[in-house]
Design brief:
The complex is a heterodimer of chains A (about 160) and B (about 475). The termini of chain A are far apart. With about 160 residues, chain A is mainly α. By secondary structure, chain B is mainly α. Chain B has one domain. Chain B is built from 20 helices and two strands. In chain B, helix 5 packs parallel to helix 11, helix 7 packs across helix 10 and helix 10 packs across helix 13. The longest helix of chain B has about 30 residues. Chain B starts with a helix and ends with a helix. In chain B, about 55% of the residues are buried. The chains are: A mainly alpha (about 160), B mainly alpha (about 475). Chains A and B meet through helix 4 and helix 6 of A and helix 2, helix 5, helix 6, helix 7 and helix 9 of B.
């Protein structure tokens, strides 16, 4: 087991554990803090896959900017356990059953699956470096790149429309 | 990217420009009327651009897009629907509490999303198009945000759409893991070479969840009635036509590329979904007193019928396109009537409000009656040949169960459509006449377009051959 495998398993355990903590934490602020750890672990995965740029951007945008927004909103709303709406018992049961079914199907499918040593890799595997990523974005993928900028325009207009006085 | 590829994308660029033009007009403080008229002409420009590039088709824009006959057909349908929705929006939003200007930006951006779906042949463009469509729809649905229903509908759509996006991405990831490609044809080739595996089927299943949500197919239809009811009437018309046409287009292209019809398990699942749609949609619509909810359930049933065409494979695509055309015209004229009858306070969605409409406004009642007859599939309206073609391809492919369910549920459907029609002709309650403050030109334009839609329905019902020939001609461009 070489160093990258050790890192992979450590990061995966970290990501899974903190993701579970996000869901089961009682305090919403704790959930957000666990989510930040999840993002760090995922950034680590990106770097392991030789996609440094994505890793850094993931840290800056998600763990940095978006999480600060989350914290602000949660603190402004002043949530705590008493004001939290109590959910219906049957609703919880239905959720558990549905989620359990999905888990069962997924586990059964993944058990059957054999990943025949196939590694989906674009040519040399260094697409994640900034230079190559920029080249790909502005040559092959220029149309979807432009469309995604329009997507942001749409999100911005929508937020302004809903949020204005 | 070559000049010809750029040229093939011209209609989509004009469509994107339309949104930017509207933003600039708002920045220069132009009136609602100016924006509306400009938007109308921009949509006409898109149609012209499509006419202009028709000879250069089919054109591939690797690796993500392909502009072929199928794309041109579905984009044409989408632009046609948006033209009508835009026209309806003027009257609706001019007398509402909200400033209507930003509405048009979102409308055109959502249209662009649906149009991108029709030309995508790669998971990335599929996802970006779908997100562009959904993100614009979140805001459109909740546009009249002072109404309780609107916010509820918007949040409901937002939650469920975000959840299904996660399903979609997970499905795509599984398929990518199995086949090593995100392009539809490459996935198809990899699958024919190595055979379907469990992982691949799992991926397809998750993608079907997402598509089923967008098309409001039965196990994933729970949002439909609430969102249809809560959204402003023109937006509801938009969801029922444009958004579903776009998603259906990409589903057809995906299924053709990966030969979904040869996969017994997928066919079984889709057959069950189709039967569930036809039965649940029609049965749930029976007891509805709210027209918008009723149309929501009826559209669930109609997409069940459409799945029969979809399951017939390549032979069914022509019938499917014709069905979508007839369905769009019908729904647009029905929602046009709802828009015209809506008052400043609330949308005209109670069935009791339609009582005796014929005696108050015979023209509106006539248009609404033709639309409902077409939804029910009565001969001499577009709904009849549309349903007939689907039944024909279904029988040709020996899908007897689906054909029988289609016929039986159509009979159930007839009951609630006729119930509305009988309400229209009942004796009217005394009600004050609605005051009209807008410029009569816009009423004239709306009435004219609705009458044109009505005649289109009749024409399609009597002479469907012309359209069918043209559709087939387009479908061979690939």
């Amino acid at each position: 087991m070489d160093i990258s495998q050790v890192l992979f398993y450590a990061l995966s355990a970290m990501a899974l554990g903190s993701a579970i903590m996000v869901v089961i934490s009682r305090n919403p602020v704790h959930s957000v803090l666990w989510l930040i750890i999840t993002f760090f672990a995922i950034s680590g995965h990106y770097i392991l896959m030789n996609a440094q740029f994505l890793g850094i951007v993931n840290l800056i945008v998600y763990a940095g900017a978006i999480m600060v927004l989350f914290l602000f909103v949660i603190m402004l709303m002043n949530l705590n356990a008493e004001t939290e709406p109590q959910k219906n018992k049957w609703l919880k049961l239905a959720g558990v059953v549905a989620g359990g079914c999905l888990l069962l199907v997924l586990v059964a499918a993944l058990k059957q699956a054999e990943v025949k040593g196939k590694v989906a890799m674009l040519e040399t595997g260094d697409i994640g470096l900034i230079r190559n990523l920029g080249k790909a974005l502005f040559t092959d993928f220029v149309v979807p790149f432009e469309i995604s900028s329009i997507l942001f325009l749409s999100a911005m207009v929508g937020a302004v429309v809903i949020g204005k006085k | 990217m070559t000049n010809l590829q750029l040229l093939a994308l011209l209609p989509f660029m004009v469509l994107a420009t339309a949104a930017v033009v509207v933003i600039l007009l708002i920045a220069f403080k132009q009136s609602h009327t100016v924006i509306q008229v400009t938007g109308f002409f921009m949509m006409c420009a898109v149609v012209l651009a499509m006419w202009f590039v028709r000879d250069t088709l089919p054109r591939e824009v690797p690796p993500l897009l392909v502009v072929d006959g199928l794309a041109a057909l579905f984009t044409g349908l989408i632009i046609f629907s948006v033209l009508v929705v835009g026209l309806l929006s003027y009257i609706y939003f001019e007398e509402r509490e909200e400033n209507p200007k930003e509405y048009y930006i979102l409308l055109f951006l959502a249209t662009l999303g649906a149009a991108v779906l029709t030309i995508s042949r790669h998971f990335i463009s599929f996802f970006i198009g779908l997100e562009l469509l959904s993100v614009s729809l979140y805001a459109l649905i909740a546009y009249l945000r002072n109404r309780n229903n609107a916010i509820e509908a918007g949040v409901k759509y937002l939650m469920l759409a975000a959840l299904t996006s996660a399903f979609l991405l997970f499905g795509m990831a599984l398929i990518y893991m199995e086949t090593g490609s995100m392009e539809f044809t490459a996935i198809g080739n990899a699958i024919t070479k190595s055979g379907t595996s469990v992982l691949f089927l799992m991926g397809i299943g998750l993608i079907v969840v997402a598509i089923g949500f967008k098309l409001a197919l039965v196990p994933f239809h729970l949002w439909a009635a609430d969102v249809y009811q809560g959204a402003p009437a023109p937006v509801t018309a938009f969801i029922a036509t444009v958004s579903k046409i776009g998603v259906f287009a990409v589903f057809v292209r995906f299924a053709q590329a990966i030969h979904l019809h040869e996969n017994a398990l997928a066919v079984t699942v889709l057959t069950v979904i189709a039967i569930a749609c036809m039965i649940a949609g029609n049965v749930l619509a029976l007891m509805q007193q709210n027209i918008k909810r009723l149309l929501a359930y009826s559209s669930i049933a109609h997409f069940g019928y459409l799945l029969v065409a979809f399951l017939s494979g390549d032979a069914g695509v022509g019938a499917g396109v014709f069905y979508l055309l007839a369905y769009s015209i019908t729904l647009l004229s029905a929602f046009g009537i709802i828009t015209l009858l809506s008052t400043r306070r609330k949308d005209a969605d109670e069935l009791s409000g339609y009582r005796g409409l014929f005696w108050r406004n015979p023209l509106m009642a006539a248009i609404f009656t033709v639309a409902l007859l077409s939804l029910a599939g009565i001969p001499l309206t577009a709904g009849f040949p549309a349903k007939f073609f689907i039944l024909t391809v279904g029988v040709q492919q020996h899908m007897w169960l689906l054909a029988v369910v289609l016929v039986l549920t159509s009979v159930i459907g007839l009951y609630y459509y006729l119930r509305i029609i009988s309400t229209l002709f009942a004796s009217p309650p005394l009600s004050p006449a609605k005051e009209k403050s807008l410029h009569p030109l816009f009423y004239a334009a709306t009435y004219t377009s609705l009458v044109v839609l009505m005649f289109l329905l009749a024409w399609l019902g009597i002479f469907p051959g012309f359209i069918i020939d043209n559709v087939q001609e387009f479908l061979v461009i690939r």
